[in-house]
Amino acid sequence: MEINEAYCLFENEMNITPIDIERCGVGIGNFVFIISTQDSKYVLRCSKEEHAYDEAIHWLYELEMCKIPIPKVVKYGKYDLYSYLILTYSNGNDIGNIYKTLTNDEKKQIAKEVIEIQNKVSKLKVSTPLDWNWNVFIDEMISRAYERISINEYFDLAKVNEIKQLHNEMQQYFDLIQPIPYLDDISTKNLLIDNGKVSSVIDIDWIGLGDILTFVAMTKVALLNMDLDTIYIDFLLEEVHPSEIQYKAFVFYCLLYCVDFMSERGMNFLDKKIPINQDIIDRLNSIYDSLLVQWNSLKKI
């Protein structure tokens, strides 16, 4: 989607003339723009997928009752070829963008706030199929990674096969995981920080049902991939207080997200290609190897 198309969409649907508009460099499934008007700022999200934002709108309204910091829905609908969603603008910056500037005390405070948010989300009432099983989610992630890596051929499929074996070892524990709601897509992105505190959670297209430790694991792999320290992860784990078996599950999730990150490299999403080069390949392989050493150091439970 071009900027002039976004301009016309916003002006026609809101009856407000933008004074500035910029395309965001984030998001792999939507066209996202920040639009400034005389009096305010908005976020415009667009997709050619029919009913693209039905689920996002549902959860934004549901999460509003949890009294957590999220954007408000301003308007949504269909314009020309696009489904669109207009949201209030949230101040702040993705935690990954400003992580190096945060003090350890601020990282600790943010971890506390994030888990408080997750605890509020966990109380949402959701309906799930009677045959819901956490192992299905893990199987789907493994299968997706296998398929993508098979196509792109940048990484060794042996790593995905190794994850399958580790999954077998943890399967009985995963059978016990309940469909508890949580925000599963806040890592180094989608969590805005302003003055060392959480200002908003953004890009909520869905919520997760299952093990909250997955978002911690994804965040750890993202930080490692950015060559940043992981003390924020230590603070998150302090707030969660995982048992021995839960910590082992956390390390498994780290390995799972590592191969998931590998599988995205070189892929095209809309008009963006996920970067791939030898440095990226070497870094992700190194992260995987280090995580596997950590896994092997854990005793069998």
Write a structural description:
- With about 300 residues, this protein is an alpha+beta fold.
- Helices cover about 50% and strands about 15% of the residues.
- It has ten helices and twelve strands.
- The protein has helices at about 5-15, 55-65, 95-100, 105-120, 135-150, 155-175, 215-225, 230-240, 245-265, 280-295, and strands at about 20-25, 30-35, 40-45, 75-80, 80-90, 95, 180, 190-195, 195-200, 210, 270, 270-275.
- A five-stranded antiparallel beta sheet has the order 1-2-3-5-4, sandwiched between helices.
- β11 and β12 form a beta hairpin.
- It is globular, with a radius of gyration of 20 Å.
- The protein starts with a helix and ends with a helix.
- The model has no long low-confidence stretch (mean pLDDT about 95).
**Taking all residues together, what is the mean pLDDT?**
94
H/E element sequence: HEEEHEEEHHHHEEEEHHHEEH
Question: Helix count?
Answer: 10
Structural shape: globular
Oligomer: single chain
β-strand amount: 15-25%
Distance between the termini: 51 Å
The value of Rg in angstroms is 20 Å
Annotation keywords:
301 residues, three-stranded antiparallel β-sheet, alpha+beta, 10 helices, five-stranded antiparallel β-sheet, 12 strands
Précis, in short:
It is globular, with a radius of gyration of 20 Å. The strands form four sheets. A five-stranded antiparallel beta sheet has the order 1-2-3-5-4, sandwiched between helices.
Task: Please outline the helices and strands.
Blueprint: H1 3-14, E1 20-23, E2 31-36, E3 41-47, H2 54-64, E4 73-79, E5 82-88, E6 93-94, H3 95-98, H4 104-121, H5 134-152, H6 157-174, E7 181-182, E8 191-194, E9 197-201, E10 208-209, H7 213-225, H8 231-240, H9 244-264, E11 268-269, E12 272-273, H10 278-297
Antiparallel strand pairs: 1-2, 2-3, 3-5, 4-5, 6-8, 7-10, 8-9, 11-12
Helix pairs in contact: 4-8, 5-6, 5-9, 6-9, 7-8, 7-9, 9-10
